[in-house]
Amino acid sequence: MSKNRFSARVTVAAGFLLLCAAPGLTRAQGSPPRPPQTHKASPAARPKNDAQPTDDFAGLKYTDDQKEKIDQIHQDMKSRMDLVVKDEKLSPDQKEAMLEGYRRLERGQVFKLLTPEQQREVRKKISARRAAEQEKKKKPSLPK
User: Fold this and answer.
1) Where are the domains of the chain?
2) Which long-range contacts (CB under 8 A, 24 or more apart) does 114-117 make?
3) Do 80 and 29 touch, CB atoms closer than 8 A?
């Protein structure tokens, strides 16, 4: 059992590294560029177990250059995630682990594109969300 778990983790890590190391492979079938649009909550910004998506980047005003780069990041991650979803060799747990890794990678890349002011605003939203989650956990459920 322990061997299977370990080999599954190694497989996920190897697949993730392979996909990250070879970004040119996923861009080979590129689609024509889309016109820039306002930022919407991407599937990558939605936690799996959360009924309501949280998008810490919502409400930010982006420059045209930022919009273009963010759209490119979303397209790149979507193509990578589609490959993982279609991969029949991966177990559901492995797929979910890789998809979560791509979501984190996407959020990190978008965060790096932001101006220092925008980054501060996102950090404030994250802190507020985490504080609210902690308060929610602290409240004991009342017996019925």
Assistant:
1) 57-125
2) 114/60, 114/66
3) no
- How many whole angstroms separate alpha carbon 94 and alpha carbon 91? 5
**Other beta carbons less than 10 A from residue 102's beta carbon:** 21
Q: 131, 46 in Cβ contact below 8 A?
A: no
More confident site: 10 or 88: 88
Reading the block at residue 68, the tokens are 């273009």
Q: Which contacts (CB < 8 Å, 24+ apart) does range 135-144 have?
A: none
Question: Per-residue pLDDT averaged across 40-65, rounded?
Answer: 63
Residue 81, C-beta contacts closer than 8 angstroms, at least 6 positions apart: 43, 44, 99, 102
> Is 0.90 topped by the overall pTM?
no
Amino acid at 22: A
Contacting residues for 16 by C-beta, under 8 A, at least 6 apart: 98, 101
